[in-house]
Amino acid sequence: MNDLSSQITEAHQHKVQNIDHIT
Question: What is the per-residue pLDDT across 1-23, written as a single tens digit (0 to 9) for each?
């Protein structure tokens, strides 16, 4: 279960980074 949470957090961070990069 912890692994899943870690994956979700990573995905979220990636999304934020992507948005930051586009901006």
Answer: 679 999 999 998 988 888 877 67
d(CA 9, CA 18): 14
DSSP, residue by residue, 1-23:
-HHHHHHHHHHHHHHHHHHHHH-
Tokens of 17: 């980074």
pTM of the model: 0.45
Q: The tokens 């930051």 sit on which residue? A: 20
């899943």: which residue's tokens?
Answer: 4
